[in-house]
Write a structure and sequence with these properties.
Blueprint: E1 2-3, E2 13-14, H1 26-38, E3 46-50, H2 56-63, E4 68-72, H3 76-93, E5 105-107, E6 117-121, H4 125-135, E7 141-146, H5 154-164, E8 168-179, E9 191-199, E10 202-209
Helix pairs in contact: 2-3, 4-5
Length: about 210
């Protein structure tokens, strides 16, 4: 079972795709968000969740006060699950009101409710990042959460990180979650390591803009 751990949607159960994804354990998610909250970077943040799967990481951020969350997942079934989970989290923000219907965008009014905006982008991570670079968007992400399949090669991950760098806010934090059997991520120019932590078979690699 996957659930939201804390925040407005705390204890809410999330749907998980039947195949093709590897949900982050509750223990590891709690460690991730303990670190992020200790650095004061979640509340009001723009959060990007790459290889989102069910959306559990990004939606945890939404529950804990992120202003907006973008979930990027190329697999159709997983993206549909992430969309349904986003609506469920927004229902918790709205006290049980019906979630947004249809489309890939689930948004909450930013007025009295303070609900976040959640978008699900059904496309490959590199395609999404290249598109954002081409758009030249002025807004930047404060938190980037990257939990790729364990079989993603280091060259592809480095390409993702390289494209991500210009899209980050100056004080952003980047997380890469990998198997303990995977090599250390190769950071491109523009990113520098903060720390890494091991949780069983999972390694968390933290970095920030140089």
């Amino acid at each position: 079972m996957t659930r939201i751990i804390a925040g407005r949607a705390g204890s809410l159960r999330l749907e998980v795709p039947k195949a093709g994804t590897r949900p982050t354990s509750d223990r590891v998610r709690e460690a991730i968000f303990s670190a992020l909250e200790s650095w004061g970077v979640v509340d009001g943040a723009r959060v990007l969740d790459l290889y989102a799967g069910s959306g559990a990481l990004g939606l945890e951020a939404a529950s804990r006060g992120a202003a907006s969350v973008t979930l990027v997942e190329k697999h159709p079934q997983a993206a549909q699950v992430a969309s349904r989970n986003a609506k469920t989290v927004l229902q918790a923000w709205r006290g049980g009101a019906a979630g947004a219907a249809g489309g890939s965008r689930a948004s909450g009014a930013s007025g009295a409710s303070g609900a976040p905006t959640i978008e699900v982008e059904r496309q490959a991570v590199q395609t999404f990042l290249d598109r954002e670079l081409a758009r030249g968007a002025s807004e930047r992400w404060d938190v980037a959460l990257i939990d790729p399949p364990y079989d993603l090669d280091d060259e592809s991950l480095t390409a993702n990180l390289t494209a991500l760098v210009p899209l980050l806010a100056p004080e952003a934090v980047v997380l890469v979650e990998r198997s303990s059997r995977s090599p250390e991520p190769t950071l491109p120019a523009g990113l520098e390591p903060i720390r890494n932590r091991a949780y069983g078979e999972t390694l968390l690699w933290w970095s920030e803009p140089a």
